[in-house]
Design goal:
Number of helices of chain A: 22
Largest interface: A-B, 125 and 125 residues
Largest sheet of chain A: 3 strands, mixed
Order of helices and strands of chain A: HHHHHHHHHHHEHEEHHHEEHHHHHHH
Number of domains of chain A: 3
Oligomer: homodimer
Number of strands of chain A: 5
Helix content of chain A: 55-70%
Chain lengths: ~475, ~475
């Protein structure tokens, strides 16, 4: 998430000084930036001229530079790691936490990433290769392998000493929680460092650990991991193998990133384009055209059917040209009600308030909702025609009441249809394994447009034949 | 977040047993449910018949029942606390963490909440009254007042003993982080419990605490708190007064709820309705009609202008009826490109990738993007007319090439306009203090519809006068 300097004056304020230092006295950069958060240093790296970034990172101690890399935007990080010598890149990524290291390597050119991995110390290499096997969108792809676990039959004092010893090694295990394992090494409980601290001397870990431990498998989808985290107010989710051995931990900071990314995807898909997968500010011109153009063309071609439907009623149009005046008004009411329904259902599905099998319950709810909203708009529709006639704003001819009723009736039907179609499309997409968020407002509107034209002329034929038609 | 039983088989599995126990042996409920997570017990409470819920809560120890209340959906919690005797309600909420207690009281009927507050123990009452002063959507409204702080000149051993003593009192301070204060009691640093544990004996807190501590003020908007949390990978954000005294801590579990809520609001607003503020599954019928109907009516009335624009061209329509066939096709292309642009900009603004002053940069980017996308669709538009003519699917008369060019040219202009309007509307709304997410797809489409009609007929007059017009 690249923030703008306005929101984060710190990076913008210190960047010029750091640039000066880099030129005059690079050896002083480390000490001068010691007090800054690595997230801010990452912002500095994104602000300063691109060609200065390698020198900036080189001026920091490796562990510090690795911290900065963890906060850097993906593209810049990949570029940097690809351009510096392999040994240097390996030295940097070996200092990153295992999950961030795997993520960084996953984003890179595969050949370069392989070279870097081969240069890693044996333990880190094995760990990284293992993490890289998991799909990035699963718990396995998110988890870190540095966590703290103790045997549940240990005394709290022993456990405390071992945690302290581990903490003093300076490794950066996720100490959000301490996991208790049984004699077979399977996950059996969880306790916080604070609970360990509070435990009475003489107790065993089994006495104080909570056994109500929520866990996921490495294959669990990251959205499900996020939902579990939110539901149980967790700050870390343990990942267990089929034999219930603890193999990793997903920490809440990564969960927040998942939630943000998933939401960005949902919103972009709901806007009727492919998810950009990178910031608006950094995607290339042609990348943007592709992400938007594909859907735009599909929707445009979909609208051909609307034109064809109109052509089918050319005869009616030529006899009652007045009907054409209300077409945009009428079809857009269906698109709008469909857009509302689809946004509601996509969000409720994503929050887990609704599941696939609730589709009929939703249909039963949207039907009266659509009818009521349609009736409301229908009244406005009748009023539009009749009032304009009364006020002398337009002359719809002697049958203006019938025209008004045609518009009103069509709106009732189209708004009901729009609400239903908008609500059902996300379920339908999910049923076929597609993302419900692809049920964008434009998609729904395109479907409703063509049926809207058919409904409108159908109603017109019913109400106006013998008079205008 | 009410999850469906399908996603959470646990609550659905145990609910029948708990119901049986409640009837036969309520005294055993506490022991039998001891191993369940309070979030699951809250799901049980939401699953069992409404009239059994008070008995279920009464069967749990007060601290446990308070935990369950924290996870319960807002409406059910308010109802329960309002219907049980005030002393009982006070006993329950006094066991909740201060931030959740304040939130629960805020959601309730004000008179009942006041009565409950007056029954709280003095300390809890003062704390609650203080928290209730803050706006719910600010850091003050989110923070808890139970945190751990130590003087920075303390030795790590002293600090450790005092943290342990505090932990053993059984109070539920947020121990995500330990805050160090200077001699004036101002926030001066932060360290994790783990860092305290790892510190060498003899060191002082000032030696080990990080001074790069990110903090917010109680008035900071909750979205900004969430952004800071995500940016710095925090699990707690300290809230300081103007004098930099620590007055509370916002914890990451509340941040996740904020992110989820804000995104639900954004998505619903982008769908063209007011944010529901409660789940789709629990909002009342008329509540739903109101949230959707207001915008739907506004948009419908907005479309009157489209009808008026059409009326202005009735003369042209009567001479070249063929023009009416492409109106839905053409105006929807503008609405679709506008929907894409507005979704992109709303999200980029919300993530902080763009700020208000970037509007002209975005405009400069959307102009060529819109033109390129428009040119692409324009080609399709020309092809639609010319191909249909060639293939004998429809006869547009001798000037079909001109008609095709009219459609194509209009599409280029309208897609460009739609992209620009969709991108600028969020900036414009924010400029006037409104939520940019209100720039919904339907809103943009309605604006683009009327201009689309004007552009289409404008182009038609240019290209077709002397032939069809």
């Amino acid at each position: 998430m690249a923030l703008d300097p306005q929101d984060k004056p710190l990076a913008a304020l210190v960047a010029p000084d750091i640039l000066d230092l880099l030129e005059e006295n690079p050896g002083a950069v480390a000490a001068e930036t010691e007090e800054l958060h690595p997230a801010d240093l990452a912002d500095v790296a994104e602000l300063i001229p691109r060609e200065q970034v390698p020198a900036f990172l080189a001026a920091l101690p490796p562990a510090r530079a690795a911290d900065v890399l963890e906060y850097l935007n993906d593209d810049l990080r990949s570029d940097l790691l690809e351009e510096i010598p392999t040994e240097q890149a390996a030295a940097l990524v070996s200092q990153m936490t295992p999950d961030d290291r795997a993520d960084a390597l996953e984003e890179m050119d595969e050949d370069v990433a392989d070279e870097i991995v081969s240069e890693l110390p044996a333990e880190a290499r094995a760990e990284t290769e293992r993490l890289l096997q998991y799909e990035p969108n699963t718990a396995g792809g998110l988890m870190t392998t540095e966590f703290v676990s103790v045997a549940q039959d240990m005394s709290v004092d022993q456990a405390f000493d071992s945690v302290r010893a581990l903490a003093r090694t300076g490794r950066r295990e996720a100490t959000y929680a301490i996991y208790a394992t049984d004699s077979q090494g399977r996950l059996a409980g969880v306790l916080s460092l604070r609970e360990l601290l509070a435990a009475q001397p003489g107790a065993t870990i089994a006495d104080v650990a909570r056994t109500e431990v929520v866990s996921v498998s490495p294959a669990t989808d990251r959205q499900e991991v996020a939902r579990i985290t939110a539901n149980y107010d967790l700050i870390a989710v343990p990942v267990v193998s089929e034999s219930r051995h603890l193999i990793g931990v997903v920490t809440v900071d990564d969960i927040i990133d998942v939630i943000e990314e998933e939401q960005t995807e949902d919103i972009q898909k709901m806007g009727g384009l492919e998810a950009l997968d990178e910031p608006y500010t950094s995607i290339s011109f042609w990348g943007m055209i592709r992400k938007r153009g594909v859907w735009l063309c599909l929707l445009f071609v979909g609208s051909f059917f609307t034109a064809t439907a109109m052509e089918g009623f050319e005869d009616e149009l030529s006899r009652a040209l007045v009907l054409s005046l209300f077409i945009p008004l009428i079809v857009s009411s269906g698109g709008n009600s469909g857009s509302q329904a689809t946004a509601l259902i996509i969000r409720a599905l994503s929050l887990g308030e609704l599941t696939q099998k609730d589709w009929w319950r939703v249909a039963l709810r949207e039907l009266p909702t659509g009818l009521t909203l349609g009736a409301l708009l229908g009244l406005f529709g009748v009023a539009r025609v009749v009032l304009w006639q009364y006020l002398g704003l337009w002359d719809y001819g002697p049958h203006y009441w019938r025209i008004g009723l045609t518009v009103g009736t069509a709106v009732v039907a189209i708004v009901t249809l729009g609400s239903l179609a908008g609500a059902m499309l996300p379920f339908l997409l999910r049923r076929f394994g597609l993302d419900p968020a692809s049920a964008s407002a434009p998609f729904v509107a395109t479907i409703v447009d063509v049926t809207g034209v058919l409904i409108y002329f159908g109603v017109a034929l019913l109400l106006l034949s013998g008079t205008l038609l």
